[in-house]
Records
---
Amino acid sequence: MNNNSRNFVYNKFLKNLYLVDINLNIQSFTVGVSGGQDSLVLLLLFTNFRSIHNNQLHLVNCNHGWRSNSISNSLRIFYLSKYTGATFNYFSHYSQLSNEKNARLWRYGRLLHLSNTLKYNGLVLGHTFTDKVETILYSFFRNNLDSISYNIILPYISLTNYLVLIRPLLTIKRSQTYWLCQLTYLPLWSDNTNYQFGISRNRIRNELIPYIKNIFNPNIEYQIDKFFYNLKMQKLYDDNKIINLLYKLVKKSHKIINLNIDLIKILSILDQYKLLKNFFMYFYKDIPTSKYIKHLIVLISKSKINAIKIIDENVYYL
C-alpha cells in the first residue's frame, strides 16, 4: 500500500485514537465488523496500527438474518480474521429482527457483553462522519434533535472505568473510506439492505444528501455538522444557566417547594419556558405539555399567578 496515499485517512484515524489515550496504552480492542466498506477500512487501519503497537484485536460479526447471503458474508469476515491474526466471534439472532432500531440494540448489547467478558479496553465501531450527518438529519425530520446525545460529536465515550467506546472513523467521510477500499483492493461485500428505500435512512443517504450536494451545496455535510455542534454548545450553555437560575428561584422547606414568580417575570420568554419546564421536570412527577407551559407564562405575565408551590407532590397556583 502506498504510504503517501493512505496517510490522509490513517492520520485522521490515529488522531482520534490519540484523543482517547495520548499514550496509546489501550492494548485490547473488540471491533465490530459487518463486511461493508467502512468496517473493512477500520480493519485495515487497525491491522496497520497493530503491526506497530502489537495490540490484541478481536473481530465480531453480528448476523441479523436479513439477507440470504449473510452467512457467506460472515464466513468471509472469519477468513479475514485468520488472515490478520485476530480472534473472532460470530453472533446470529434466533429470529429475524423487526427493524433497524431493534437490530442496533441487539448488536450493541452483544458487543458490550463480549467486551466486558473478555475484559478488553476498547470497543470499536465503524461510524463515519457521514453516519453522524445522517443521524442528525433523521432526528431533525422526526422533530427529535434534543434526543441526540452530545456524545455523537465525540469519537470516544467512557462506558466503564476500564472500557471505552471508540469511533476512530468519526471524522472520515464515507467517500474517503470508499476511495481507500478502491486503492487497496479491499474485498467489498455489497449489502442490498442499504438500498431498500422503505428504510428512511437509506433515502437520506442515497437520495436526499446527493440531491442537496448537487443542487445547493457540495459541502452540506460539513454545514450540517457545524450547525449541530453550535446547537449542542448553545444547549449546554442554556442548560447550565437555567439550572443556576433554578437554584436561585426555588426555595425548599420540609415538603414545600416554592418558585419565585416575581423574578421569573424579568426573564426572556424563552428562558421562562425553559425554567418552568426544568422546574416541573426536577420537582414534579409529570412534565406539562409545551402548550400548558406557554399558558402558564401568559398567566404569569398578567399577574394572574403570583406563586407556584409543590406540596406533598401536588402543584398549586396561587
---
Amino acid sequence: MVSATDAVVPGLYGYQVAIWRPDGVVLVFAEFAGTINAYGHEEAATRAEPPVPLAQWQGIAESPDWQFQVPRALVDEGARLASGIPRAPFPEG
C-alpha cells in the first residue's frame, strides 16, 4: 500500500508505505509535512511536503535488504540503549 493523506490542518499531509512480507511481518513507514500533535506540539504544517519523497519510501520498504530475523546481539544492544529511557516512544501526559 502506498498513500498520501490529508490531515485536519490545511497543508499538513503525510506519506505512508506498508509492505506485507511473506512471513506475515508488516513494515509501515509514515512521515508528515509538519507536527502531528506529538510531544505536546500543536498540529501544524512546517514545510510544503514531507521531506522524503513517497517513491523513495516505497523503494526502502520493498528493498530485498530487509532481514526477517534480527540478530540477538542487536536486540540486546537495543535493550541496553533503551533501558535509560523512562517512557518510550511518547511521554505521557
---
Amino acid sequence: MALGLLAGCSSVPLERSAMQPAQLLPLATLAPPVCAYRLDAVSDRRAAGTAAGSLGAHAFSLDDAADLVRQRLMANGFRDDPALPALSLEIRQLYIAANQSSKVPVAVYRVSVDGGPPTILRSHAASVNWNGTEAESQRAIARALDDVDLQLRQMLDARCGSRHAAD
C-alpha cells in the first residue's frame, strides 16, 4: 500500500527544448509608426540567462533573445538611420510560467530614448492553459512579445506627438 502511494508522488521529467525564433516572430503587424526611430542597442539582461520558463512537461531556453527582439522591432518599422532618435532596449525578463488553469508569458523591456530616463514595459498576456504543449508555449511567448512591442510603439508614438507639438 505505501509503495503504491509513493508511486503516485513521482513526477514526470521535464522535456528540455529551445524556443525557435521562427515561432516567436510577430503574430500581428503593427501600423506604421507616427515617426521613425533608430534601434541603437538591444541587450539581453535576463537574470535567468537563457532559461525561459516551463509549461506542463516542457522546460524552455531561448539562446539569442537580443537578436530575436531586434528582428521583431526592425520588421515593425525601426530603422538604422543615425539621424533618428536612438532607442536603447534591455530585455529584463522573457519566460513563461503556469499554474493549473492559466499560463503567464512574461516579457519585460527597459527602454530609453536618446539616453533619457528609462521606462519599464511589461506584457499583460495571461491566458487559459489548455494542454501545456510546446507550440502553445511558443505562441504565448510570441503574444507577450507582441503586447510589449505594442506598448513600446504606443509610448514612442506619444513621445513623437509631443515632440512635434513642441516644434
---
Amino acid sequence: MVEFKDKLPLGLCCPLFEKLRADVCFTDIQICLRGDEVINAHKVILAGRIPKFHGQILGPILCMNKSETSASAVKAVIKYAYTGKIEIHEDTVRPILIVARQMELTGVVDWCCQFMTERLHPDKLLEDWEFAHHADVPQLRLACFEMMQTEFTQFVLSPSFPALPFRDFLSLLENDDLRAVDEEQVVEAILKWTSASGQPARLEGLHTLLAEVRWGQTEREFRSQLAEQSILNSHKKCRALLSRVELWISWPRSRPGRQAPFKERPRKYAEEELLLLGPTYGLAEGEWSACIYSPQAEETIVTSCMKARPDSLIVSAENGRIYMLGGRVNNKWTNTVREYNVRTRRCRPVAPMLEQRRCAGACAVGGEIFVCGGKSATLEILASCEFFDPKRNVWQLLPPMLRSRYRPAVASLPDKRLFVIGGYNIFTGPMTSVEYCTFPSNDGSTKCSPQNMPASKDFWRNAAPVLNSYTGRAVCVSNGKIILGGGYNGQDGFVNEVEIFMPPDSSNPQGQWTRISDMRHKRYLYHMVACSRSIFSVGDLGNAVENGQTVESLGLPLNLQQERDGMEPRGWTDQKPLVNMRYVCGASAISRGIWKDRMVAH
C-alpha cells in the first residue's frame, strides 16, 4: 500500500471537514453506490475539489451505482476530496483510476499510473496493456509499450507474449527502440508468436512481421538455417521475402535503383549509455547525483540530490532499476537496501539484506540481485550468500561458498551461471581461486531454506583460477565472456592488467583465463561496464587523485563473424574525463530509451 497526498492536503488545513462528513453534519447530498450503500457529503466540497462537478448544479442525490463503478473506489475518492490523501494498493488501483478518470481528477489518475508503472512486470504486461486501452489511459499504455520494448527478452518468455494482438506486435517490431539481444532473437520471437497453439490464422501475417526484421544485422549462417524451416518453406510470400533479403545482402551489385526489402537502419537497442552514480560538484555533503556519460560531451545530470550511500555495493538490474546494498548511513554500517528507479527518478527502501556486509561482492542475475562474502559486523570474513527477489521483496539464503572471501569480483552469464572471482582471505591473502554455481530458478520452484539447503560442495564448483592474485578488481560480461581487470596487491601496488575468461564447457570443463591488452591506467576499486560494443573502465576510488575522473574504453569485435574469426579487441583508448563528477561510486549500462524522454533540466 502507498499513500499519495497533495502538496498541501486539505485534511491538514481543515481536518474538521472530514469529521463533519463522517458524522453526517450539515451534509446536503447523498451519493448512491452499488449494493444500496450511501455516502453523505457536502456539495460545496465536491464542487470545489472534484473538477467533474465544477460549475454543476448538484441535486440532493448523485447516483454512482453503475455495474462498472466500484463502491470502495468511490469512497476512497470522496475521502480524498475531503483529506487530500488517498491510499492505493494493487487490489484497488484499477477501480480508483477508473473513478478518478470519471471525476476528472488528473492528479489521482497520475498517482495510479505511477503506482502501476512502478510495478509493471512482463508476466502480466498484456493484462495491464489491455486495461490501459479499455480505460483509455495513454500514459499507462505508453509505459506498457515501453516495457515491451525495453524488456523484450523477458516479455517474449512470459505467458503474455503469445496473446499479444497482431497489430500491437507489428507496432513493436516497427519501432527503432525495440530492445532485443539481436535481430536473430527478433526472428525467433516472430516464429514463436506465429506458432502459438490454436492460432493458424497467424501464418497469413508472417511475411508482414518478417519484413520488419533488420536483416542486415543477422548472420548468413542464421539466415541459411532459417530458410530450411518448414513453416517458412510452406509460405510462398515468406520464401520470396527471404530470397530478396539474401540477394540484397550478398550481392550488392543488384541494388542500384532498387529499394531494400527491409529497414537497413539498425535499431537503437545497441545505443546504450553509461549511468554513473556519485557526488557532483556543488552538491552538499551526503548527496549524490545520477549522470549519463557520453565521450562526446559533459555528463548530463539525470537526478540530483539523492541521499548518498558511501561504500555501498551498487548493482544494476532489469528495467532501469539500480540497487544500493549496505554501505554506511550516518557513519554506521548497515544491511539496508535502496532501489533507484531510472524511469521515475525516485529512490525507495526495499527489504534489508539478511546479514550486514561490508566489502562484499554482488551482481544482477536476470531480475534478481546476488550478494556474497564480505565482512560481517564482527569483522569475520564471510562465505555466506543471499539473493533478493524484487517481485516478492524478500532476501533468500543460498548455500555458502566453498571459501570465505571479501572484495571478490562477481559476474553472471546469460545462462545464469554465477562466478565469484578472487578476493581476499585472512589466511591466504589475495586469492586466485574461482568458484561458480547455476543460479536457482526464479519461478518459485527452487527454494533454499535452512531445512533443504544443498551442501556447498554440491552447489558450488571450482573453475580455472585467475592468472594473478589481486583484490579490488572490476569485472563485466560481454558476448558470454568475463572480462576482469585492475586491482591491488602488497607487492605490485595498483595494476592495469586485464584478463578474459572463456567459461567452462564440454571441451574445457574449468574454463580458461587469457591475458589481453593492459589498460592505460592502473586502477583499484573502480568500475568496468560493457556498453555499446565497448568495455569502459571508469574512475578509481583507490587512486582517486590521479585516476578518479578518468575514463577509457576497449573496442570489441564489431559483429559475431569477427568474433568467430578470432579478431582481438582493438586496444584501450582514453576517453573524455569526467567534468561534473568528483568521483564515481557506481556505474552501469542503461538503454537510452529508459531515461531520455524523462530528462530533467541540468
